Amino acid sequence: MNNQNFMTTLLVDQTPEEVFNAIKNVRGWWSENIEGNTEQLNDEFLYHYEDVHISKIKLTEVIPNKKIVWHIISNSFKFTKDRHEWTGDQIIFEINRKDNQTELKFTQIGLTPEYECYDICSNAWTHYIQDSLKNLITTGKGEPTIQEEQNELEENFVKKWAAKSKHE
Fold this sequence. Notes:
By secondary structure, the protein is α+β, with helices and mostly antiparallel strands. The protein has one domain: Alpha-D-Glucose-1,6-Bisphosphate, Chain A, domain 4 (2-Layer Sandwich). Helix content is about 30%, strand content about 35%. The chain has 4 helices and 7 strands. The chain has a 7-stranded antiparallel sheet. The longest helix is centred in the last third of the chain and has 22 residues.
């Protein structure tokens, strides 16, 4: 079936609370290039990687120790024909207790094999969830993309994009 949303699952020995807190620490496992808040319901943040990928994301559901949902308000890729893939997608983190372990199920609703970025994006998410987030949960140290030293051109791009996306 070709209409499968991307999903990956991991099991850890830590508590649901520890998993929940690690997920909210987006700078600790995904990227240090995050502007804005990433923990509370209705928080919005801007993610960017150089001028290649930029997203505005809103937390639309936060159930402590159980679930976090992100809504991709707007997105721009420099490497796809449809630069706005991901716009409108939902990213869901579901936390459940399984025997003596905690299961984290990550799903991006909308990221399907039909997306041009599917291979790149699914591989990236697999790394960030299975390696970086898992390490943050289990050892206290993730492997996020490090903070960029923005040159003036990149800084202006991010500022312009952030201002433009406020009006969407």
